[in-house]
């Protein structure tokens, strides 16, 4: 694995190229959303154009999926380069940080590996690019990275302005407040007139102002571009509270210099923060490949497929599972879904990285995070994969 670090803005020449290429879509913004999928029309029905399924409208020319999108996809570029350049961070325990050997570990880092396993057949073929918060979308737009997997919230303005396509949220989160255990605060309602510190370039600042106003409280919000500087200010007593996504606060609390017991995270959740991988706009093939890599982890958990049993499941008698793992279906056919991925991509993902539950447990359970909204849909959560057929 290779590692790159980008601080601040990329070279001006690269930005000029991006500005020219993205002038119609804007160049500032936020987070990805799951691609929509509709049910296939039933036989004899009509689609949106008034034609029956399988027919061609008068005067139209039949096209294949490959013909609809012209030009080379990043899927081709990544395959040729034989490496996925994944934008992450290196300082958030549980999501993406460096271990003692200097390797990236964590939930986000593992989803970079999921993408590499699906696209290239090898989870180790990742170049991790460490990004400051304010550089993440610039790096995506300019082509410095192929995919952004950096605990990034999907919002309307980020979807519309940043030239980014948000995919399926890997973690549903919400913003919370953390304070010193000896600060004397029992809840946000006790913090009238407080100084609350947040990371700059995130959704946190606006969320804090909105929540305090809703409670008829005053607040001074201070933003820091570097989390280390924010922590220094917090330790020095210049911040009464530290607000961010709940999962991020849990990770930061786990590595706090004075120990996790020195901090308290309030239960109140006052925003929706779907943390979502993002790719550049206008590349459907690459977006689909990355999104179905994510879906593979969710579907595998639903099927009960794990790293330990994936080989047995692939050789089993459940036709749907065998097909999902790249084998022949009940009709003796190996499914090619037209995603540009090897039919065994899900097999590669699960055998090399694991299913969604395994990835979650390996990285987040020990921090004290529960599945909650990130449980499977059958268990009352929001994690749900479209049918693979």
Query: What is the count of distinct domains?
Result: 3
- Structural class of the secondary structure composition? alpha/beta
Mean pLDDT: 86
Helix content: 25-40%
Q: What is the CATH homologous superfamily assignment of the largest domain? A: Periplasmic binding protein-like II
What report would you give on this structure?
There is one protein chain. Residues 7-68 have low confidence and may be disordered. It is built from 14 helices and 16 strands. It starts with a strand and ends in a 26-residue tail after the last helix. The protein has three domains: 2-37 and 70-172, Periplasmic binding protein-like II (D-Maltodextrin-Binding Protein, domain 2, 3-Layer(aba) Sandwich); 175-271, Periplasmic binding protein-like II (D-Maltodextrin-Binding Protein, domain 2, 3-Layer(aba) Sandwich), CATH 3.40.190; 284-371, no CATH class. β3 and β4 (96-98) form a beta hairpin. The strands form five sheets. The protein has a five-stranded mixed β-sheet with strand order 12-11-13-10-14. The protein is 32% helix and 16% strand. α4 packs across α10 (284-303), α4 (107-120) runs antiparallel to α13 and α10 crosses α13. The chain is of the alpha/beta class.
């Amino acid at each position: 694995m290779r590692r790159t670090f980008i601080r601040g803005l990329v070279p001006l020449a690269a930005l000029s190229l991006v500005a020219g290429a993205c002038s119609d879509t804007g160049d500032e913004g936020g987070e990805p959303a799951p691609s929509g999928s509709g049910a296939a029309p039933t036989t004899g029905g009509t689609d949106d154009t008034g034609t029956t399924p399988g027919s061609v409208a008068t005067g139209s020319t039949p096209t294949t999926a490959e013909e609809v999108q012209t030009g080379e996809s990043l899927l081709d570029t990544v395959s040729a380069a034989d490496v996925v350049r994944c934008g992450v961070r290196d300082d958030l325990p549980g999501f993406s940080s460096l271990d003692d050997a200097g390797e990236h570990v964590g939930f986000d880092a593992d989803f970079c590996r999921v993408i590499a396993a699906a696209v290239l057949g090898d989870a180790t073929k990742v170049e991790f690019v460490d990004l400051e918060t304010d550089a993440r979308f610039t790096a995506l737009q300019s082509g410095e990275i192929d995919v952004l997997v950096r605990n990034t919230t999907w919002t309307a303005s980020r979807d519309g302005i940043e030239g980014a396509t948000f995919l399926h949220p890997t973690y549903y989160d919400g913003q919370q407040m953390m304070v010193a255990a000896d600060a004397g605060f029992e809840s946000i309602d006790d913090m009238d007139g407080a100084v609350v510190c947040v990371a700059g370039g995130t959704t946190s600042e606006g969320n804090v102002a909105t929540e305090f106003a809703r409670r008829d409280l005053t607040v001074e919000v201070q933003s820091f571009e570097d989390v280390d500087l924010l922590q220094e200010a917090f330790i020095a007593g210049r911040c009464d509270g530290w607000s961010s996504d709940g999962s991020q606060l849990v990770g930061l609390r786990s590595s706090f210099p004075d120990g996790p017991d020195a901090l308290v995270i309030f239960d109140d959740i006052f925003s929706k923060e779907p943390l979502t991988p993002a790719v550049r706009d206008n590349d459907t093939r690459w977006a689909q490949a990355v999104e179905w890599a994510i879906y593979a982890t969710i579907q595998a958990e639903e099927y009960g497929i794990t790293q330990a049993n994936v080989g047995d499941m692939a050789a089993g008698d459940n036709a749907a599972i065998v097909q999902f793992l790249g084998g022949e279906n009940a009709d003796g056919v190996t499914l090619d879904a037209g995603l540009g991925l090897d039919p065994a991509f899900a097999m590669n993902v699960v055998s090399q990285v694991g299913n969604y539950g395994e990835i979650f447990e390996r990285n987040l359970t020990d921090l004290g995070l529960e599945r909650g909204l990130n449980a499977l849909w059958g268990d009352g959560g929001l994690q749900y994969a479209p049918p693979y057929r």
